[in-house]
Design brief:
transmembrane helix; MFS_trans_sf; 457 residues; Multidrug efflux MFS transporter; mainly alpha; Growth Hormone, Chain: A; 0% strand; transport
């Protein structure tokens, strides 16, 4: 998760060091994201075919190897190729980790476990620019990739020793190549089109108009294909008949849109309006990360005790309220005023994304955990990409409409964009009502009849 953001800070440095234009070096980031989008849907089948532990250890080893190769890249082309391999391996890590934890935790402890593993996912966008800025300012560019190697080696050793062994499924299900041929390129084109819209500051860019319709057609064809294959599909659509899973998928999409879209604006405001460095901007976002880290363990226990709907609803309201505060920013807003707002925002983050995802597993059998993880990751990533693109386009439109480029005018453009973010976040609160309103043990108690008096268990 950290690797998806840490490289962004170093794009210009990589361009100068590798003697490549910005349009070429940008593929160091884009290639990684596209590899993620294509490979994530295969997680369920691969975990079923080879076992979750074996897949996790192999993916970590490949990710570590690819990181070392990125550090040894001799030109932009080789670096892009190694980043694609790195992204393909990294695509499997988060869904497989969630699969392993979902099986080990069991439904009644799902909230606590999923919120703990979710801490890195929400802290990475905050810490990535900070760590990237430190490495680029103090060390050669190779270290933004070499830093992964010792962590990866340690992870491989510990995972091989400590993760519970699981055997591959006895029945070998044929891989759905047709589904991958439709879903993989469809997701890749969708992510690429949204990313280009954000970079260009407009959805009217020719690349966006050429990729987005193609993505919609491929995804629609995949739905038809998956309906025909049933349980043998790359992602079985039958899971969406479960209300908890369907609700969690929709909420993951909406929260990705509302949370990660605004995450793009905050560091840009600090750098563009307040003229802060990437390192300082990252440090100023620390209260948000602190709030997230504090809220997640508590939110997990509350989810297990009272059900996910109330927890996610409160978290969404906190995110909305703190975003409303950001609509009042100016070119001289005190950082001491922004810090409490970001802390509250972090508390809201900690009570939303992972409790919502945990709800998706509650009624599914353990064998479905791999497919469920893939779906929830896809919805979250697409929502995040859409949110980032949407906020970037709205911001660009307001900056272009302004006749001045003074800090005050730029601050006003950011404040107006935060109004849009507040409205979208507030609308997203409604979708939290799709989540279950009771803890799992109450659902089970209601569904399981009491034994007759006098009988033994």
């Amino acid at each position: 998760m950290l690797d998806t953001t840490i490289v962004n800070v170093a794009v210009r440095t990589l361009g100068s060091e590798l003697d490549a234009g910005l349009s070429v070096v940008q593929w160091v980031v884009t290639g990684y994201l596209l590899a993620l989008a294509v490979v994530i849907p295969t997680t369920g089948w691969l975990a079923h075919r080879f076992g979750a532990k074996r897949l996790f250890v192999t993916s970590t080893a490949l990710f570590t190897l690819a990181s070392g190769l990125c550090a040894l890249a001799w030109d932009a082309g080789s670096l892009i190729a190694f980043r694609v391999v790195q992204g393909a391996a990294g695509a499997l890590l988060m869904p497989v980790a969630q699969t392993i934890l979902a099986r080990a935790a069991g439904p009644e402890r799902m909230g606590r476990v999923m919120t703990v593993v979710g801490v890195p996912a929400l802290l990475a966008p905050i810490l990535g620019p900070v760590l990237g800025g430190v490495l680029v300012d103090t060390l050669p560019w190779h270290w933004i990739f070499l830093i992964n190697v010792p962590v990866g080696v340690l992870s491989v050793v510990l995972s091989a020793r400590l993760l519970p062994a699981d055997a591959p499924a006895s029945g070998r299900q044929a891989f759905d190549f047709g589904g991958l041929a439709l879903l993989g390129p469809g997701l890749a084109l969708l992510v690429y089109g949204l990313s280009r819209a954000g970079d260009a500051g407009s959805f009217a860019h020719p690349v966006v108009w050429s990729t987005m319709p193609a993505a919609v057609v491929l995804l629609a064809l995949f739905v038809l294909h998956a309906r025909g294959r049933g349980e043998r599909a790359l992602i079985p659509l039958g899971y969406f008949r479960d209300r908890a899973f369907a609700g969690a998928s929709v909420v993951a999409l909406v929260l990705g849109l509302t949370i990660f879209g605004v995450m793009l604006l905050l560091p840009l405001y600090y750098q563009q309006v307040r003229a802060e460095s990437a390192l300082t901007a990252g440090l100023l976002l620390a209260p948000q990360g602190l709030g997230t880290a504090m809220a997640m363990p508590i939110a997990g226990r509350l989810t297990d005790a009272y059900g996910p709907r109330r927890v996610v609803l409160v978290g969404s309201i906190l995110v909305t309220a703190s975003t409303l505060v950001l609509t009042q920013i100016t070119a001289s807003t005190s950082y001491w005023l922004l810090a409490p707002a970001l802390t509250v925002r972090g508390l809201g983050f900690g009570a939303t994304m992972m409790p919502a995802m945990a709800a998706g597993y509650r009624n599914l059998p353990p064998a479905a955990a791999g497919h469920a993880s893939s779906v929830l990751q896809i919805f979250s990533r697409v929502g995040g990409t859409l949110g980032a693109a949407l906020m970037a386009v709205i911001l660009a439109q307001h900056i272009t409409a302004s006749a001045e480029r003074t800090p005050a005018a730029l601050a006003n453009a950011y404040a107006t964009t935060f109004w849009w973010a507040t409205a979208i976040t507030a609308a997203g609160v409604v979708f939290t009502l799709l989540l279950p309103n009771t803890p799992l043990h109450k659902d089970h108690d209601a569904a399981t009849p009491s034994p007759a008096r006098g009988t033994t268990a």
